[in-house]
């Protein structure tokens, strides 16, 4: 156990988050997403797991992970098939966590385009989220130097 770090962030996840650099993508996916097979194509090459609801995982991750502020697609959600404007409750909950961490509005990404982005990501965290479309992508930003 460490002080100041959300206890749901396990050692493997913390290692991956720390190893990532500016511009690297992190995928946080629901239980139905093909996380294991997609994760094999990522930089990390293996699946990470946090068996909690998506919004809890996003809150914990964003407590240590800066979101990129230089690009428009730094926070994204998989869109509902044939309903790109539909915002499901799981998406609303995650958007609240994203807004609390930096105020960005998540963009939607078509399902197969989301899979393609996921395969190019640094890592995939599979959550315990059982609701459909609980899949999100976050591009890592920078941590500025301490003020002098």
From TrEMBL:
Keyword line: Isomerase
GO molecular function, one term: L-fucose mutarotase activity
Keyword Isomerase: yes
InterPro entries found in the cross-reference section: RbsD-like_sf, RbsD/FucU_mutarotase, RbsD_FucU
UniProt GO BP: fucose metabolic process
Catalysis performed (reactions): alpha-L-fucose = beta-L-fucose; beta-D-ribopyranose = beta-D-ribofuranose
Protein name listed in UniProt: Fucose operon FucU protein, putative
């Amino acid at each position: 156990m460490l002080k100041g770090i959300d206890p749901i962030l396990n050692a493997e996840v913390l290692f991956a988050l720390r190893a990532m650099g500016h511009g690297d993508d992190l995928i946080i996916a629901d239980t139905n997403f093909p996380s294991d097979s997609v994760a094999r194509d990522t930089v990390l090459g293996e699946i990470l797991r946090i068996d909690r609801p998506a919004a809890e995982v996003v809150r914990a991750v964003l407590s240590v992970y800066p979101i990129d502020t230089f690009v428009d697609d730094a926070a994204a959600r998989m869109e509902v098939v044939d309903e790109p404007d539909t915002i499901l409750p799981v998406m609303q909950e995650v958007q609240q966590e994203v807004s609390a961490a930096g105020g960005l509005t998540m963009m939607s990404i078509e399902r197969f385009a989301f899979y393609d982005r996921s395969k190019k990501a640094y890592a995939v965290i599979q959550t315990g989220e059982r609701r459909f479309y609980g899949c999100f992508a976050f591009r890592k930003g920078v941590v500025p130097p301490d003020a002098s």
